[in-house]
Amino acid sequence: MNGRPLRGLLDTGAAGIVLTLAGASSVGIDPARVRAAKPVVSSGANGLQSNGWLHQVQSFGIGAERFANLGVVIKDFTLPDADVLIGEPYIEGRKIWLSYAAKQIFVQAPAAR
């Protein structure tokens, strides 16, 4: 994100791309600017609502794919092994295979429309 690496977690239940506040800071996004951004409320798998901020990132890449001016939600929470939840905007239309033997995830880009 913004040219810097993050650890991501594919989340089939996430409606968007959700970045931790610590992850945002690590890619050069000022936490004070984040807190001044548009607030949003969302709910997670447990049904509990949480607050976050809508933020536009300059660039976001997964593998060879690049996205520009992507809207992400930044939340002040921690993830055990990741900085960003990668949800429906990325997953939609793609086929995803998990190889336990190779310990890899394979993603097929969506078909052109």
Describe this structure in words.
There is one protein chain. The protein is mainly β. It has a single domain, classed as Acid Proteases (Cathepsin D, subunit A, domain 1), CATH 2.40.70.10. The chain contains 3 helices and 8 strands. The protein has helices spanning 21-26, 31-35, 88-91; strands at residues 8-10, 17-20, 39-43, 49-62, 65-75, 84-86, 95-99, 104-108. The strands form 2 sheets. Strands 1-6-2-5-4-3 form a 6-stranded mixed sheet. The longest helix is centred in the N-terminal third of the chain and has 6 residues, at 21-26. It is globular and about 40 Å long. The two termini are 26 Å apart.
| CATH homolog superfamily | Acid Proteases
The strand count comes to: 8
Mean pLDDT: 88
Query: Class, according to the CATH hierarchy?
Result: Mainly Beta
Order of helices and strands: EEHHEEEEHEE
Question: What count of structural domains?
Answer: 1
CATH topology: Cathepsin D, subunit A, domain 1
Largest sheet, described in full? 6 strands, mixed
Number of helices: 3
Helix content class? 10-25%
Share in β-strands: 35-45%
Which regions are unreliable across 5 or more consecutive residues at pLDDT < 50? none
